[in-house]
């Protein structure tokens, strides 16, 4: 646990700290990105400037400015600012912060801001420990998380906080951050005489994928590992930049996993093979278990194609069998083939609509007896049992193969559902 207010008041930059840390914005004017919440006239900016920020949650991907904005608040506010990490902090730590906050409020009237990094990691007991303090105004809670708080956090906390969603920085935002670091002689790389070719900066910004911290780390590595030229300048070329930043790492937390899986399923339903392949590739790259993906394909082959093209289900099941037999990466071809087949198939949801309606009726209960002519007769003595009207089990059943066309009109429905229609052909493909 550390006091961010004290940190924010430290004016001498730590030259041993990483460039990304040294270049953190100190004011709202220096802050890069997130104009939708901290641009001129926006709610969050007004609240910070007026020192009237209420309990809130900062939700967004890494490197987009959540912690930096917290530092700006620490610099701007007249209140105390305490930082905790949900991984290392327990209920006793929370109690100590709350006791200090209550004493501070009574003695000086100053509010206490509590920044909780990785707030989604707190369990219910930890979350419940700060609820009274939030409600009383003892603290102004700021949670920071990379995972969807509506899914990962307790509803009691979420309901008492305003959620501010942060988005990945644009490529231009990342470029602005790197250019500022190259020029800054106090905190940045300006004192080293580092310069970078524009194509080098463009490459780093592209690979960083909206993560300014990753971009600055790569820029610093490039500067520190490049020998100066004759003029004592350090020139960062494209070749140096390519060596200094790894290929983009797709972080697949719980929220991103479900969002990508949703996009994949909707692409299958929408018959967009290119989009479905793109999402499949992204999920595979992120390390999602391909069995999960193929299971969704099997479901969609019936849910969204059904009898319009029964072969779609065969393709999906074959992809699962190929995955089990071949494994990855070879099975990517079989999975891709099934994806394309499902997308190219005519679409019909008559199967899912039919079974959903039938299941809804089943859930209502009130099950009557099985009609006597449909009851089991594959046991000795079946003819000694029947219904209250004296009809014996199996009596009156018409064997379809004894009739022309191997079909005979006969009522198979439960008595309470007679006349009910579940399957309604869509007219698509073979679904007629």
Give a written overview of the molecule.
This protein has 432 residues and is of the alpha/beta class. It folds into 3 domains: 2-165, P-loop containing nucleotide triphosphate hydrolases (Rossmann fold), CATH 3.40.50; 171-244, Helicase, Ruva Protein, domain 3; 254-344, Zinc Finger, Delta Prime, domain 3 (Up-down Bundle), CATH 1.20.272. The protein has a 6-stranded mixed beta sheet with strand order 1-3-4-5-2-6. It contains 20 helices and 8 strands. The longest helix has 18 residues, at 91-108.
Shape: elongated
Pairing-aware structural class of the strands and helices? alpha/beta
| Count of helical regions | 20
Order of helices and strands: EHHHHEHEHEHHEHHEHEHHEHHHHHHH
Low-confidence stretches: 4-12
Task: Give the domain tally.
Answer: 3
At the first level of CATH, the class of the largest domain is Alpha Beta
CATH topology of the largest domain: Rossmann fold
Descriptive tags:
3 domains, alpha/beta, 432 residues, 6-stranded mixed beta sheet, two-stranded parallel sheet
Topology of helices and strands:
Blueprint lengths: L1 E2 H6 L9 H4 L12 H4 L4 H7 L6 E4 L6 H11 L3 E6 L5 H18 L3 E6 L6 H5 L2 H6 L3 E6 L3 H4 L2 H4 L3 E4 L5 H13 L10 E3 L1 H11 L3 H14 L8 E3 L1 H7 L9 H16 L3 H13 L4 H16 L5 H16 L4 H14 L5 H14 L69
Parallel strand pairs: 2-5, 2-6, 3-4, 4-5, 7-8
Antiparallel strand pairs: 1-3
Question: What is this entry, summarized?
Answer:
The chain has 432 residues and is α/β, with parallel strands linked by helices.
């Amino acid at each position: 646990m550390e006091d961010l207010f004290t940190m924010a008041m430290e004016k001498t930059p730590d030259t041993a700290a990483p460039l990304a840390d040294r270049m953190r914005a100190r004011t709202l004017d220096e802050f890069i990105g997130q104009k939708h919440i901290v641009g001129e006239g926006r709610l969050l900016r007004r609240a910070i400037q007026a020192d009237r920020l209420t309990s809130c949650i900062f939700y967004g991907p890494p490197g987009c400015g959540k912690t930096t904005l917290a530092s700006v608040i620490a610099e701007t506010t007249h209140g105390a600012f305490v930082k905790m990490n949900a991984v290392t902090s327990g209920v006793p730590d929370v109690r100590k912060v709350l006791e200090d906050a209550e004493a501070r409020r009574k003695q000086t009237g100053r509010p206490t801001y509590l920044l909780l990094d990785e707030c989604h990691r707190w369990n219910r007991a930890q979350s419940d420990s700060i609820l009274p303090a939030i409600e009383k105004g003892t603290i102004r809670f700021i949670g920071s998380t990379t995972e969807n708080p509506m899914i990962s956090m307790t509803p009691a906390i979420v309901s008492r906080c305003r959620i501010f969603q942060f988005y990945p920085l644009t490529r231009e935002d990342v470029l602005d951050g790197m250019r500022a670091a190259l020029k800054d002689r106090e905190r940045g790389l300006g004192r080293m005489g580092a310069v970078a070719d524009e194509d080098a900066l463009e490459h780093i910004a592209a690979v960083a994928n909206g993560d300014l911290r990753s971009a600055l780390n790569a820029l610093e590595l490039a500067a520190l590992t490049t020998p100066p030229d004759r003029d004592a300048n350090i020139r960062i070329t494209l070749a140096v930049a390519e060596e200094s930043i790894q290929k983009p790492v797709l972080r697949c937390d719980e929220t991103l996993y479900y969002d990508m899986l949703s996009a994949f399923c909707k692409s299958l339903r929408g018959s967009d093979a290119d989009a479905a392949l793109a999402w499949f590739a992204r999920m595979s790259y992120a390390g999602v278990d391909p069995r999960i993906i193929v299971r969704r394909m099997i479901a969609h082959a019936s849910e969204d194609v059904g009898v319009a093209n029964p072969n779609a289900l065969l393709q999906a099941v074959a992809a699962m069998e190929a995955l089990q037999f071949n494994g990855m990466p070879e099975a990517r071809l079989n999975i891709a083939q099934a994806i394309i087949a499902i997308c190219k198939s005519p679409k019909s949801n008559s199967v899912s609509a039919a079974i959903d309606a039938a299941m809804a009726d089943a859930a209502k209960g009130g099950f009557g007896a099985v009609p006597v002519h449909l009851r089991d007769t594959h046991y000795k003595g079946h003819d000694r049992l029947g219904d209250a009207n004296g009809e014996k089990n199996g009596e009156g059943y018409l064997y379809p193969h004894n009739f022309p066309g191997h079909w005979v009109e006969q009522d198979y429905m439960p008595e309470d559902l007679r006349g009910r229609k579940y399957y309604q052909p869509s007219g698509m493909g073979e679904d007629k």
